[in-house]
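Q: Predict the bound structure with adenosine-5'-triphosphate.
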Amino acid sequence: MGLLSIFGANLAIDLGTENTRVYKEKEGIIINESSAVAFDTRTADVVAIGNSAHEMYGKSPENIMILKPLEEGKIANFEVTKIIFKYCIDKAIEGFNLFQPKVVITAPSGISDIELRALEDACTYSGARDVYIVESTLASAIGSEFDISKNEGRLIVNFGAGSTEISIISMNGIVISKNIKYGGDYIDQEIIDYVYDNHSLIIGKNTAKEIKETIAAIGEVTTYDELEISGRDVMTGMPSSIMIKTSDAIEAIKDTFNIILEEIRYVLEKNPPELSRDILKNGIFITGGGSKLKNLNLYMEKELGLRVVKSENPFTDAINGAGKIISNLEEYKKIGK
Ligand SMILES: Nc1ncnc2c1ncn2[C@@H]1O[C@H](COP(=O)(O)OP(=O)(O)OP(=O)(O)O)[C@@H](O)[C@H]1O
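A: Predicted complex:
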């Protein structure tokens, strides 16, 4: 048996509110699945994990409960976190390995020491030998090929499902960061409420998400789309369909984006003046799945008066960065928590 098969490969795990990704050293991203876990409430057994659990949403009997590890950018359920970690490690490391893998995991910045230790324990319990925790913003910056060791400020906004994280980084660290609950899930709820109030239709989360991802936009757009959606009529309780337009979606989500802009302005105001020049030069980097919202970069540029650069790989910047860290652990060890 070769030395490699004794030690096995090391892993990086980006545990997200909606999606979890796993990077295996020398192979790249090998898992990209929903973070959902389905339980049978009668027996407390886990009946499905990942995409197969996600597919049960809204279609399963009452005894099936679907839970996720994170909510609003915070660890909401450690049991579910352990189940996801174990699922990822078992799936990534098949067969016999004398030594368990070293694992890098991403965590929201601003995570408390207690949460940090609990996250570490959950990963060790699930089969990791050593656990290194890195803030997701730093992982995203590394994944986007920024040289984070430079004495140069960068403003990164990560539009995730559970939260939006606004951070300024410089010299291998986070200078200032704000994690706010206005992520993709919050925006989906705004769309659900808008459709209820203005079209008397009750729609599900998946429909709201489809509206957001296909026809929604923010700011002044030149092209308008529409989408036929179905739900339950508020008055009759019967199934019903309507056409929903880009203008409806903008109306539904614009207040939330005004708040996000306010929070970005707040972080910019708190930024040390020496770094402001760098941010003027580099602009704002946006990543995370929510950064794909139509017109978001132009809207932010107009409102903030700064250049906005969209990530080319918004879903995988963090896991690619975490993957680079696990593959070059000695070089990056100092940035871990
Ligand atoms: N085209 C799109 N327009 C707007 N939002 C989108 C689009 N595509 C995906 N999203 C949203 O991106 C979010 C998922 O992004 P991502 O996978 O980065 O989140 P996550 O890592 O699971 O969450 P978090 O970082 O908050 O833990 C979802 O809310 C999804 O609806």
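A: The longest helix spans residues 246-270.
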